[in-house]
Amino acid sequence: MTGSLSGAAAIAGIGATEFSKDSGRSELQLAAESVRAALADAGLDPSDVDGMVTFTMDANSEIAVARELGVPALSFFSRINFGGGAACATVQQAAMAIATGMAEVVVCYRAFNERSGQRFGRVQTAAARQPTSTGLDNGWHYPMGLATPAATVAMFARRYMHEYGATTEDFGRVAVTMRRHAASNPNAWFYQRPITLEEHQASRWIAEPLHLLDCCQESDGGVAIVVTSAERARDLPHPPAVIAAAAQGSGPDQFVMNSYYRDDLTGLPEMGVVARQLWRQAGVGPQDVRLGILYDHFTPFVLVQLEELGFCERGQAREFVADGTIGLDGRLPLNPHGGQLGEAYIHGMNGIAEAVRQIRGSAVNQLEDTEHVVVTAGTGVPTSGLVLARS
Amino acid sequence: MSDPITETARRIAAAGESVRTPARDPVNRPMINNWVEAMGDANPVYTDPDRAARSVHNGLVAPPAMAQVWTMRGLHGQRAADDPLGVMTKVLEDAGFTSVVATNCEQTYHRYLLHGEQVTVSARLENVVGPKNTALGEGYFVTTSNTWYVGDEPVAEMLFRVLKFRPSRRPEEPASPTTAESGTSSEPVIRPVIGKDTAYFWEGTSIGELRIQRCGGCGLMRHPPGPMCPECGATNPKFLVSHGLGEVYSYVVHHHPPMPGKALPYVVALVELDEGPRMLGELTGIAPEEVHIGLPVEVAFVRVDDELTMPTWRPRTEGSGR
Ligand SMILES: [Zn+2]
Asked: Which domain covers residue B235, as residue numbers?
């Protein structure tokens, strides 16, 4: 059975709103606009849609979005838990629904006013009060003062530095690269605003050892992805981005952002679970892939992902990124759109859209001869990943 | 102290009983039928004329607990202008105490009502107590009493207490900023959710014990705890009391954003206990720049209030070693 999903479905359309700090409209409107744009991009009508997938965290229900678009009927709807870890799994859900005949055209979407509305970077008091297993989990961390995403990642980062000799400059090289890529992307919030490593080092502490410039921005916006069968996608306007692999993963003794009780605090075993599935399904390995879209809400986890995906040895990522490897001219360019540090933070969905553009050949920072792109979702949480292919 | 709330409360209480408001309909069988059906009360004295006639009541009576039903205002009804709860509610809402929860309701019945009787009701403000800090937020307890009459005869009374409160900050509102980076947030602390599987831990901190869950089957130590041992499957968790000593395994110096109940910056440490498991807590008594991985620490308990004591860490003092 393994691998039966590979090649069955493809991304035929992508759509997005502008990325801003204050959209001035409702989250539902952002969702509806991005879905409509993605359908137009795919050359499909709302009446073609019969499936919808989003994040558990998304405030716009599948039926609300369907109403706004005039989608007459849905035969498949689903939601994925665990924050940004859901991003690639929405596409996996869509692909599985299509491969099993549950739906023919599935739209995955994520839309929020994450800057002008509820900001994730703030202390999430409500998250500590939920009368659920998650609320109990948070009770071991939030009341103790560890209550923001940056702080939870900083705890990993400190141990990673200790074990492998990494420095905050190593984290900074990731930020500088992402901002350089965003500087030539007109859709990026930080268009034409690159930073230097000195600026990174001089930026204020958020949660030591993380500087402000290690943390992704907060954004308003929406992104939608249209998935259909690979066969049908070939008849649509754009070259299909074939879903060669799609996987979810959680690891041993898994928590949301606080998996501090495992033997080892320097890896992301949940991403390892994803990586092994991706390479097996896609029939390629890290040596075959020349482009990565890695989730970059905080820089240290970009380094750890390179290790979990097998692009370098454990603890070696700081050397891997030191010589320009992840730049546009490097051996493994990462996030040519500028990632969430540079373009926008749409919970990883804008990264999937960039992977599709790179496959199509329509990206602003277009790379040559992209056959495969590996895409990852949120880190520190149960997560997901994709390998998209040109054919 | 004569703020507007206290002043209004005094004035309304002094005014005494409001004008009596008549019930919309006389005590009647159709309404009783619906009520007893909904409540599952099968007593025939309310609905069966023959059996009621043979009872001590010598005829149909109404359930006493329906007192309030007779004088409900209906879907579009308005409170009387002098209704004390209505007036007090308005004053409190204008002052920002916009949420309400009923806390007490005590009813006294003087006699059964007979079918066909016409009821009236009056209301009186007993007292307004506050402001009080409650788990829901700051608020005032408003106590009113109602008396139901048939003619001039009191037939039932009710003491009714509500808490009108200002809801605690909602999550979608931005955290209230402190005036300076080194300021202390005035927000109340974040409290843990405590459940059946975790109560032992917090009961321990309240008496100065740092408890580690230990499986009653295989002895596996585990933190954070859970109801089923992942090693042997036993659902028989016990605990041991930790010596409270360990070393910093990792740590964070939190600078931004402000955190309820904490002064910035502060250190949170992940401590590996001598017994094995790791546990998280604030690390105090040391400058942030002096903290390092491997630092020997000991537990310290910080009492927040009667219900919550937080475990924290501090550098080990002389003689605290094993
Ligand atoms: Zn056991």
From this structure: 199-315
